[in-house]
Recover the amino acids of this structure.
């Protein structure tokens, strides 16, 4: 049986900028940063309290994964904010919201009490969006 | 203060003060930080400040400061800086208290931890494919 997810990918427009966003703004930890040459960088980060989940910040480069037209389409879709890649959790949403806003993170939904929980939405530097929820006590 | 968040959550000004104190610690962890001064700066009594900080972050300001110092020590050790330089660079005055705290948090001495990390970094350069799930490497054409 499947027991865990240990890698997940987020497609980003620029890995240097994504590093700055996920590490210096969100406070994630770098797990692996391995280069195999120009345009070939394996960069993974982990949420501070979840070192077993590597989030791969995948550059959308033309190559085997994306043909030229697919790469262009993918970049356009990511920039437009098409993709929501997941839900992050924090202990205190208002404090986390205030901190991330102070660091320049763009929120598309301010903290709101919904019937399913307390959540806000923010975007990464590429345009991918995430829900940010508060851990239920 | 303005905006819908402040309207819906009128006590958000308290969060802003606590967050500012946290960001101050993040930026000045390497200096001698007087937590009384931070409490004053945030317009709280020391007791009230510690209580709010702990309620928000799960740790007292002092515990949080120590955690930030150890995190930054790890970043500097990964860069290969000598343990003594790291100790002073993150705001500790004494090698023994730095080493003891580091060991308590990571279960390893700073020197041993550094050796392991430097070895891993070197391997990442010489054999990067050892760190990448093969399916991703193949899909990217890196194999």
């Amino acid at each position: 049986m499947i027991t865990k997810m240990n890698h997940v990918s987020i497609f980003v427009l620029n890995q240097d900028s994504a590093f700055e966003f996920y590490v210096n703004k969100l406070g994630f930890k770098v797990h692996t940063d391995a280069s195999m040459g120009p345009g070939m960088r394996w960069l993974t980060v982990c949420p501070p309290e979840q070192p077993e989940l590597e989030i791969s910040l995948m550059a959308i480069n033309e190559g085997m994964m994306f043909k030229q037209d697919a790469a262009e389409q993918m970049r356009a879709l990511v920039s437009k904010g098409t993709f929501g890649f997941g839900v992050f959790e924090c202990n205190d949403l208002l404090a986390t919201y205030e901190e991330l806003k102070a660091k320049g993170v763009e929120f598309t939904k301010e903290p709101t009490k919904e019937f399913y929980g307390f959540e806000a939405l923010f975007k990464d530097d590429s345009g991918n969006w995430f829900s940010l929820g508060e851990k239920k006590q | 203060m303005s905006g819908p968040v402040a309207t819906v959550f009128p006590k958000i000004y308290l969060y802003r003060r606590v967050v500012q104190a946290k960001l101050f610690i993040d930026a000045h962890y390497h200096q001698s930080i007087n937590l009384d001064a931070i409490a004053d700066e945030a317009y709280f009594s020391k007791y009230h400040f510690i209580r709010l900080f702990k309620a928000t972050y799960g740790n007292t300001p002092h515990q949080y400061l120590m955690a930030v110092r150890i995190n930054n020590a790890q970043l500097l050790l990964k860069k290969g800086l000598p343990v003594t330089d790291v100790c002073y660079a993150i705001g500790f005055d004494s090698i023994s208290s730095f080493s003891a705290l580091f060991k308590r948090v990571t279960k390893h001495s700073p020197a041993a931890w550094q050796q392991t990390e430097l070895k891993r970094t070197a391997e990442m350069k010489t054999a990067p494919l050892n760190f990448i799930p093969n399916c991703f490497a193949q899909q990217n054409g890196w194999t």
